[in-house]
Amino acid sequence: EEKSYLQELEGGKKEPETLKGVLNARKFLKKRYGKIYIQFDDPLSMNELIAKFGTPLAEMKPKEQNILCRNLGYRVINAINRSVVVTAYGLLAGAILNCGRDRFSYSQIRSIVEAYLNYLATQEAKLADTLVLDHVRAIQHALDAFVQSKFIEPVSKEKDIPYSQRSYLINASRRPFLEYYKNSCIAFFIPPAFTALAILEKDAFQFSASDLHANYRFLQNLFKFEFAYDIDKAPEYYVRKSIKAFIDDAILMPHQTIPDTYNVTSAGFRKLRLYSIFLKTYFESYWIVLNFFQNNSQDSIKVKDRLKKIEASGKHMYKRHEIDFPEALSKVSYQNAVDYFTNKGIKGSDDTEKLEFFAGAIQKTLKTLQ
Q1: What are the angstrom distances between the C-alpha of 30 and each of 24, 33, 242?
Q2: 3-state SS, residue 39
């Protein structure tokens, strides 16, 4: 599954499942790998959804049918996200990739994981049994599994060192595998990531919730091809919910006299970064695509060759250290970024005004996330 995922991100075709593949997998199916969780969300009623549009399906125009399909798609994806079971592997991978260092200690990672667990508790997310019963042991087990898979390496080769004294190094070439696990639970962290980034970009210890709405709406729109949001809820809802969770974790403190106003605590800035950093990979992918548009006119590159040129550009930017994360070199995100920017009227270097706007916004964010 890991290899298939990475192959698809790099532009490979998804191999269709076959009966032969199932038969060949019999030797694996006999082994014990752990527990499988099968979850279901509430059924969706097409009749109720069509009724909201006020027009029978047979009488809808093609444009109305497209809107209905997108609406249904968002609802299905959100139902899937709500039903996801968060595992120790997903949480640990997110903590490792978000810690901001190639070298980290067990204590640092455990602290990040526990911050994420505190947030998930406020969202009533479904957790794997291992996390519920003993999250410390579950994280230690996942660490050992990542070492065995060579995603990370222990700094000391000595055995029987207490976990509290252990340190690890990220294997840079295996970061995309960690990204695979992180993405299994990333949907839970997108609203707080948007909110945290909006707070950090205010660059002030004090802010009002209403100050964040425009920035949240911009981020939601920028990544609308990456993350599905609940179309029945406005950005104000997500900002309010994230702020409540941040207050519960002592990241924010409500102002004593001014309503709807909050102060960032001394430890809050560090924790806000632990949420906002979930977005850095995507900002780097979009910056690669925008940089391509800045340097190429609309007529200079054929559409069929565009993605290959962007891939080559991304690799050069990574080698020149203009991009920090190798997982940002994703063909899927490149295509999503192309769809977004072309939808906004950016076709090449001649679209100067729009290019300057998005370049300024993305560069400002990347500086915030350094």
Answers
A1: 12, 9, 44
A2: coil
Residue with tokens 């430890």: 267
Residue 221 corresponds to which tokens in the numbers above?
């729109």
Is residue 254 a contact partner of residue 262, using CB atoms and an 8 Å limit? yes
| Both tokens assigned to 309 | 């040129």
| % residues pLDDT > 90 (the chain) | 73
The DSSP letter of residue 30 is T
Tell me how crowded residue 36 is: count the other CB atoms within 10 A of its CB: 6
pLDDT tens digits, 252-279: 999 988 988 999 998 899 999 999 999 9
**170 pairs with which residues across the strands?**
152
Q: Are the beta carbons of 276 and 193 closer than 8 angstroms?
A: yes
Render pLDDT for 153-205 as a digit per residue (tens, 0 to 9): 999 888 889 999 999 999 988 998 999 999 999 999 999 999 999 999 998 88
Distance CA 334, CA 224 (A): 13
CA 282 to CA 316: how far, in whole Å?
A: 17
- The whole model's pTM is what? 0.90
pLDDT score recorded for residue 304: 87
- 170's enclosing H/E stretch is strand 167-170
- Residue 263: strand, helix, or coil: strand
d(CA 214, CA 281): 22
Distances (CA, A) of 263 to 50, 208, 239, 257, 365: 44, 9, 15, 12, 21
Does the structure show a pLDDT above 70 at 12? no
Give 74-140 as a DSSP string: HHHHHHHHHHPEE-HHHHHHHHHHHSS-SEEEHHHHHHHHHHHHHHHHHTT-EE-HHHHHHHHHHHH
